[in-house]
Description:
single chain; alpha+beta; Thiol Ester Dehydrase, Chain A; 4 helices
Amino acid sequence: xxxxxxxxxxxxxxxxxxxxxxxxxxxxxxxxxxxxxxxxxxxxxxxxxxxxxxxxxxxxxxxxxxxxxxxxxxxxxxxxxxxxxxxxxxxxxxxxxxxxxxxxxxxxxxxxxxxxxxxxxxxxxxxxxxxxxxxxxx
Length: 138
């Protein structure tokens, strides 16, 4: 199952070349990811997950340029992998208004590591967190 997030493109995301710079795409990923975690009942079902998780890696493949427009883009987020001490989320960012059919703007992934803020150390994925993340597994 995928979580779909509608992300507003900001005017100041554009650069001197007239398209959205590469940097805001990471922010779009973060917005979609936090949307998935909070809308997906992680606060209730896996509360430690939203209290402490750090990004270990991002990877983005840019497919098409994005220019500012008033309508949001759509970002699908899903779980690609759950391991003992990390998990991977994938993203598909698209212009759903493109004609004749939606256009993929970028595909990306993020590797995240559960983190214990009190000890300042990574920790293992708990059974409750694994169960929550597997709801979105593809």
